[in-house]
Every structure is written in structure tokens, then in C-alpha cells.
Backbone:
């Protein structure tokens, strides 16, 4: 230990550069990893639907008069008649569709807890989406309400609701949500009784602000009519997705003729997975960017430390020779350089962690960035310690091979 | 002596080729990541239109109704959308240098014989001064006149791109096109006009990236043909919803009014005029709220309402930190490399070379490395921007490198390289020659 510290004091520049590199790398790494996790989290959430069988039809927009209930029903029947279709639902704000979004604050009956949630409105949503009921039951046919523009798409009614587990936990922590009631928004004095809970559903509008609410969804049983747009969810039988997908456009064209539709806007028929990909596109791009940054940072740091220690070891060849001649074993030399690197890395990591927190505080003050979870500091630290040891291994092994005679000969 | 330093520096560069390459690549990656992030940011913070955006203002007036009893007055921000009657009154008064109202429609037009289609695109329902106001140059023909608009004559002005698409010629004046079954005669062709950042209808629509407005229609004629805006604004009588795509009712607010004002005096007197107008409407009972007006400069308005995604800023900071890491790295590698050559330096010094000369030699070597690093950073930046464009993110179409960026890149590379190289070069030049000769 003693001779090591003395070396640091005598040659300041080299160790200082190593420390600086490790500090910078730690600071960048902690922040990129946290940002990466933030971008990736919704991508990794379970969808809670039968993704392989689900097809979504959207952008059926009317040219003049809004679609009547009969038109919507006729479209539904026509879709159901396609061979290979199991169940069809009509509605608005179906999962992973972005053209219409229904979101807002939902509170429990006492009004004490309020969270942001999305509402998916339509008939037969649970069987069509393939959602898993984990408590309570599905809606009954008698509970269907009419959703129109006049009653805020059914939200101004006393229709029951089904919540996702995430929303139920947010609203009713440590309580059984079944039988409780929820209120939507501030001006809707309607109590909606919770009749069921589904495992998962993911909303399509996830920003940094609503990150924690990504799984907050409630279902409302309604027949949508009198709206200028309508969406369908079609659940195909196993293996029939491709053929159903192909058959849908012609069916939609027959049910909603082109001259009744808004000119220039084509109905969109896509698989759930396709819609999901589109929604998460920019998120995925950001995740790719951040993970490549992480890897490049690690590589650059590795090269840097290797270059510096390589030279530093070479510079001290004579010193190593003397130590070997005085009885130091090869393993002692190896340990010496490894310990030295560990000390420098520790110093760098300490500085880097402080910088990481500083950067995060600054980012939080200026942009919508959440607080850096403390867990990333040890992760970054371990990564850099390992990296440092990896970088020093080659030069240290080379140093250990220096024969004692070198001390006499000199390079 | 200078020439000799240069030769030595060149020889130094060529000596450890693998290491030289490593330094160059490290430097290039750092600079390229910075430039990629910076190019995207600067593209996103560009002025909304090519010329004159700082003289353009959006009118805002307290024309909204009072909240209904029981409703809480959500965000009492002043509306920028006006009713047709108010927008028309302001534009017809001609109190600004130029003025126009506009609403954005989403239109699919076809040529009169129905053979070719424009595909869906954005069109403005507007007044006759719009091209002059926004600096859209008219290539052929003319813009409709005020009289023609009032007479609801079915006229249209389209851009060259659309003219070629529909009629096969750049000058499509005299042809007709069909929108929702109605024929419109083309009276003018404008140059293709790109909106670099959306500035209109920001409260109603969010259209990221570059936009083109290929079609201008006289508002009155369009309404007569049943064409309405893409996003109907709020209506006073909310139980009577605005029709979805047709012209909104008289009590709906759906038009933005843009004016051009060149001097602060003009801005002041126009604001006074607006306040007088609002006061008169308040007195007449049309505006139930206390009269208030505002003029939003286009650039500020865009910054407020169409801000750059924060991830773009964060990426730039991230890449700057990464550049710092790369530069510390380059500094370390250069230091190791220069000190390895201590023996030669010592020999040179004993043979009479000055410290300055040794310093220059090493600085040239560092400069050479950074020049090469900068050169390599250019293709890497292009690669980075290409990767960004591959991701279909909203802003990716804006990611292009231009000449001034290119020059910035080079200056940055060489500047950073010299700063980073100065310390190792200085260390090399201060080595004591006698000690080096002795130890080696």
C-alpha cells in the first residue's frame, strides 16, 4: 500500500487521467442506464391481450353524418361473418390505437386517491381482447350503455367498470376493489361500480409524466353510436390471423362505402403487434441509441485504461525487475498492479457517483427526467471495477513475466 | 526548423500506426456523436418558415364564453381561434401590413376528369393575402381577389408539385380540380413551400416535422362547397356539436388570424386596434369576458407550443459528456505515446533543439491526429444521421448535415485536438534531457 501511494504522489498525471476517465464513465453510465430503463419499461410490460390473434381496425371516419348505431352494428356483424373470426368488439380507444385517446383522472369514492388512467370503451372487450379476469367477472349484456358524444362516450352514466390490477392497486390499496366505486373526472358525479379486475392492459399514451400510470386502464361496457369514428377489435381463431387480416378491408369497404367515409383517410387494418410496434417506435429507437451509447462508453473506457496502464507498467519495468530480484513472486507483481487499478477505480467511481447525482439533479431541474434510482450507482460501480480489472489484466500479466535480470540489464 | 518539426511529427504519426488509428477513431466517435445530436437539435430549433417569421404575429382575444355554472374554468388561457365573423372583421379592416385568417383542412383532390388524385394532403382555407403574408411566391397566374372570394367563386391556388401530379405540367393555371364533387378552377401556381416547423393550429393538431401546404382555397368558396377544417374548434353552445368535417357553425371558433407588423410602433398601434375591437364587442355583448388581447410572435409561439422533445436536449448533453470522455481518453493515449518517445526527445534536446521546437513538433502531431479524427467524424456523423432517419421518429426527417455544420465539425475537431494535445506536448518538452539519456 505504502509504495503504491508514493508512486501516485510522484507521477500525478497518469493516475489522474485514469481516475478522470473512470469518473466520467461512471457518471455517463449511471444516467444512461437509468434513462434506458425508463424507455424500456413500457416495452417490457405484459400486454394482457391475445396478441397473436388480435386484429385492430381503425380510422373509419365518416364524411358527413356520424355513424349510427345500426351502421356500427352492421360492420360488427359483417366482420363476425368472416371465416376464422372468433369475437368482434366495436369501440373507441382500443389498445395501441392512437387516433382517439380517452384519458383522465379517476378517483375512488372518497375522492382521496386520484390517478391518471385511460378508458377503453366498447362491447365484449374482455373476450375480444383476450384479457384475463383475475377477480370478479366480465360485464353482463344488460350492463351495456349507449356511448355517444352527448354522454361523454358513456362516462356520464352509471355503467360498471373493470379495472386493470395496476389501476385497482393505485385506487384501492390493501382493499378488495370489487364492489367499490370509482369516479371519472371532476364534473361527472356518476359512481361506477367495479365488477371485475383484469391482469394487464397497456395504454398507448405513455410519456415521462404518465410512466408510472402506463398500466392504468379501465374498461367501460358500451355500444358506441353517433360518433364520427369507430374502431373494431377482431379476435381471430388460432392460426387464422393472416387470412382474417386479408379479408377485413373488403368487408369494411362494403359496410362503410368509400363515399360515406372521410375522403383521403383509409381505414387501417393491422395486427395488434403491428400497432404496438408503431406506438413504441420512438421508444425503441431511444432504447437502441442509449444501449449503443452504453456499449461505446465501456469500450472507449476500456481502451483508454489499457493504453495508460500499459505505458505505465512499461515505464516501471526496471522497478519491477528490482522487486523480483529482491524476492517478489510473479503473483505479487500481478496483485500489485491489480490493487493499484482497484484503488484508482474506487476513487474514480466515488467522484463519478457524485457527478452522476449532480447531472441527474440538473437534468431533473430542466427536463422531464425522473430521479436517478440509487440502485444504478452500485451497478455502475461494479461495472467500472470489473472494467478496470479487465483493462489492467493484460499489462499486469506482462509485468509479472518480467524476469529479475531485467533490473541489472536495463531497457 | 518548422519544416523539420513537421517532418518529425509526420514520422511520429506513422510510427505506431495501430495506436494512431485508435486515437483517431476514439476522437472521431466522440465528435460524430456530438455533431449528430447537435444537427438534430439545430434542425428542430430552426425558424418555422424560411423568411420573415419574426414579423409575423398570431392574434389572440378573450372571445370565449363564460364557464357554465358548475364547470370550473379550465385553464383560462386566451383563445387564438376566432369565430368567422371576428376573423373576417379583422382581416377586412386591413390595419396590419398584411393579414390573413386560416384554417387547415385535409383534402384529397382529383383532376377534373378524375384520372389522377392528389392523395390526402393539407390545405388552407384562407384569405387572399395569405401567400404574400407567409412569403409563398406565386410562380404562375395569380391569387384570387377579395371580390372573387366574397362572390364564392370556386377558385384554388396549388403548388407546382401538386400541379405536376394532377395535370402533368408545372403551370396548371386554367385547369380544374375536383374536391368532394365540386369543381375548383386553378388560378395560380405557387412555388413548393415547406413549413419547417408547424406554427399554425398548434392547439388543435400536432404534426411533427416538415410540412407542405399544397393547396390554398378561398374560405368562403370552400365553405360554400361544404369543405370544413380538419379540427373543428370549440363552439359556444356546446350541446350543438360542430359538424365533423363540414364548415362549423357561426358560434364556433376555428380560424387563426395572422398579421405582419414590421416595427414596434406598428405592433403597438395594432394591439390598440385589437383592444378597441374587443372592447366594442364586449360592449355589444358578443364577448362576455373583460376585453383582453394579445399578439404572439410566431417564433415565440412555436417555441412555447411546438417545443423540441426533451430527449433531443438530453441526447446532446449525453453526447457532450461522451465527447469529454473521449477527449480524456485521447489525452491519455497521446501522453503515453509522447512519453514513450522520451529518449528521442532527450537526444534532440542534447543536440540543441529548443523546448519550443519540441513542443511544436508534438503539437503538430496532436493536430494531425485531430485533423484525421475530424475527417473520419464526417462519414461517422452522416452514418449517425442516416441511422436516425431510419428510425421513423417524428423529427427524423429533419436530420441532414449542411455545410456550416461541416465546417463547425472541422473547427471543433482541430480545436479540441490541439487543446487536448497541448498538455502531453508540454510534458514531453519539459523532460530533462540529461536524466532521460542517463536512465535509458
Residues:
Amino acid at each position: 500500500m505504502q509504495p503504491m501511494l508514493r508512486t501516485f504522489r510522484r507521477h500525478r498525471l497518469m493516475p489522474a487521467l485514469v481516475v478522470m476517465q473512470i469518473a466520467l464513465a461512471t457518471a455517463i453510465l449511471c444516467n444512461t442506464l437509468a434513462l434506458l430503463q425508463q424507455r424500456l419499461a413500457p416495452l417490457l410490460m405484459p400486454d394482457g391481450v391475445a396478441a397473436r390473434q388480435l386484429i385492430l381496425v381503425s380510422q373509419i371516419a365518416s364524411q358527413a353524418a356520424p355513424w349510427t348505431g345500426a351502421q356500427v352494428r352492421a360492420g360488427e356483424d359483417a366482420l363476425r361473418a368472416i371465416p376464422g373470426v372468433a369475437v368482434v368488439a366495436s369501440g373507441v380507444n382500443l389498445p395501441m390505437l392512437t387516433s382517439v385517446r380517452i384519458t383522465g383522472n379517476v378517483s375512488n369514492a372518497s375522492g382521496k386517491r386520484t390517478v391518471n388512467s385511460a378508458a377503453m370503451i366498447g362491447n365484449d372487450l374482455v373476450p375480444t381482447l383476450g384479457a384475463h379476469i383475475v377477480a370478479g367477472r366480465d360485464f353482463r349484456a344488460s350492463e351495456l350503455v349507449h356511448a355517444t358524444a352527448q354522454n361523454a362516450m358513456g362516462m356520464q352514466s352509471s355503467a360498471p367498470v373493470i379495472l386493470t390490477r395496476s389501476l385497482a392497486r393505485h385506487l384501492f390499496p390493501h382493499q378488495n376493489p370489487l364492489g367499490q366505486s370509482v369516479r371519472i373526472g371532476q364534473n361527472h358525479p356518476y359512481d361506477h361500480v367495479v365488477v371485475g379486475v383484469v391482469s394487464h392492459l397497456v395504454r398507448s399514451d405513455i410519456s415521462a409524466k404518465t410512466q408510472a400510470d402506463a398500466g392504468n386502464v379501465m374498461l367501460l361496457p358500451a355500444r358506441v353510436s353517433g360518433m364520427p369514428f369507430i374502431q373494431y377489435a377482431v379476435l381471430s381463431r388460432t392460426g387464422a390471423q393472416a387470412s382474417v387480416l386479408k379479408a377485413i378491408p373488403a368487408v369494411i369497404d362494403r359496410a362503410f362505402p368509400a363515399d360515406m367515409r372521410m375522403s383521403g383517410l383509409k381505414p387501417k387494418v393491422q395486427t395488434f403487434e403491428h400497432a404496438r410496434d408503431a406506438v413504441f417506435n420512438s421508444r425503441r429507437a431511444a432504447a437502441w441509441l442509449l444501449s449503443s451509447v452504453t456499449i461505446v462508453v465501456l469500450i472507449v473506457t476500456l481502451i483508454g485504461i489499457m493504453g495508460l496502464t500499459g505505458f505505465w507498467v512499461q515505464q516501471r519495468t526496471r522497478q519491477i525487475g528490482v522487486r523480483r530480484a529482491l524476492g517478489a513472486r510473479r503473483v505479487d507483481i500481478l496483485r500489485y498492479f491489480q490493487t493499484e487499478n482497484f484503488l484508482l477505480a474506487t476513487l474514480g467511481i466515488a467522484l463519478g457517483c457524485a457527478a452522476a447525482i449532480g447531472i441527474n439533479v440538473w437534468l431533473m431541474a430542466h427536463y422531464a427526467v425522473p430521479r436517478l434510482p440509487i440502485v444504478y450507482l452500485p451497478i455502475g460501480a461494479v461495472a467500472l471495477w470489473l472494467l478496470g480489472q479487465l483493462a489492467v489484466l493484460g499489462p499486469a500479466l506482462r509485468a509479472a513475466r518480467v524476469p529479475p535480470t531485467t533490473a541489472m540489464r536495463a531497457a | 526548423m518548422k519544416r523539420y518539426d513537421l517532418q518529425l511529427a509526420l514520422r511520429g504519426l506513422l510510427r505506431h500506426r495501430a495506436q494512431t488509428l485508435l486515437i483517431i477513431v476514439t476522437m472521431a466517435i466522440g465528435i460524430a456523436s456530438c455533431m449528430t445530436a447537435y444537427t438534430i437539435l439545430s434542425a428542430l430549433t430552426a425558424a418555422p418558415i424560411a423568411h420573415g417569421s419574426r414579423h409575423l404575429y398570431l392574434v389572440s382575444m378573450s372571445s370565449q364564453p363564460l364557464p357554465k355554472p358548475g364547470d370550473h374554468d379550465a385553464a383560462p388561457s386566451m383563445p387564438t381561434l376566432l369565430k368567422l365573423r371576428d376573423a373576417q372583421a379583422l382581416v377586412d379592416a386591413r390595419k396590419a401590413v398584411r393579414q390573413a385568417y386560416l384554417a387547415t383542412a385535409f383534402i384529397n383532390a382529383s383532376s377534373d376528369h378524375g384520372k389522377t388524385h392528389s392523395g390526402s394532403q393539407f390545405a388552407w382555407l384562407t384569405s387572399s393575402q395569405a401567400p404574400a403574408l407567409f412569403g409563398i411566391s406565386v410562380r404562375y397566374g395569380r391569387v384570387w381577389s377579395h371580390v372573387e372570394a366574397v362572390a364564392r367563386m370556386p377558385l384554388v391556388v396549388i403548388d407546382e408539385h401538386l400541379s405536376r401530379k394532377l395535370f402533368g405540367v408545372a403551370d396548371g393555371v386554367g385547369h380544374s380540380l375536383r374536391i368532394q364533387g365540386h369543381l375548383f378552377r386553378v388560378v395560380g401556381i405557387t412555388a413548393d413551400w415547406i413549413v419547417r416547423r408547424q406554427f399554425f393550429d398548434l392547439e388543435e393538431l400536432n404534426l411533427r416535422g416538415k410540412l407542405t401546404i399544397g393547396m390554398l382555397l378561398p374560405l368562403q368558396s370552400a365553405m360554400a362547397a361544404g369543405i370544413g377544417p380538419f379540427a373543428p374548434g370549440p363552439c359556444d353552445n356546446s350541446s350543438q356539436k360542430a359538424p365533423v368535417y363540414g364548415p362549423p357553425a357561426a358560434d364556433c371558433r376555428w380560424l387563426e388570424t395572422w398579421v405582419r407588423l414590421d416595427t414596434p410602433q406598428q405592433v403597438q398601434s395594432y394591439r390598440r386596434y385589437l383592444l378597441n375591437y374587443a372592447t366594442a364587442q364586449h360592449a355589444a355583448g358578443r364577448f362576455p369576458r373583460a376585453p383582453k388581447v394579445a399578439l404572439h410572435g410566431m417564433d415565440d409561439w412555436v417555441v412555447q407550443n411546438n417545443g423540441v422533445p426533451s430527449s433531443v436536449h438530453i441526447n446532446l448533453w449525453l453526447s457532450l459528456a461522451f465527447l469529454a470522455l473521449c477527449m480524456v481518453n485521447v489525452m491519455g493515449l497521446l501522453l503515453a505515446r509522447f512519453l514513450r518517445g522520451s529518449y528521442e526527445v532527450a537526444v534532440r534536446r542534447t543536440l540543441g533543439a529548443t523546448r519550443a521546437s519540441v513542443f511544436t513538433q508534438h503539437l503538430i502531431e496532436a493536430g494531425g491526429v485531430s485533423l484525421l479524427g475530424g475527417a473520419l467524424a464526417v462519414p461517422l456523423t452522416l452514418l449517425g444521421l442516416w441511422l436516425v432517419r431510419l428510425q421513423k421518429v417524428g423529427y427524423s426527417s429533419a436530420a441532414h448535415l449542411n455545410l456550416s455544420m461541416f465546417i463547425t465539425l472541422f473547427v471543433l475537431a482541430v480545436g479540441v485536438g490541439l487543446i487536448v494535445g497541448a498538455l502531453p506536448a508540454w510534458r514531453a518538452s519539459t523532460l530533462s534531457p540529461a536524466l532521460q539519456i542517463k536512465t535509458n
Summary: The radius of gyration of chain B is 31 Å. The mean pLDDT of chain B is 83. The CA atoms of residues 241 and 255 of chain B lie 17 Å apart.
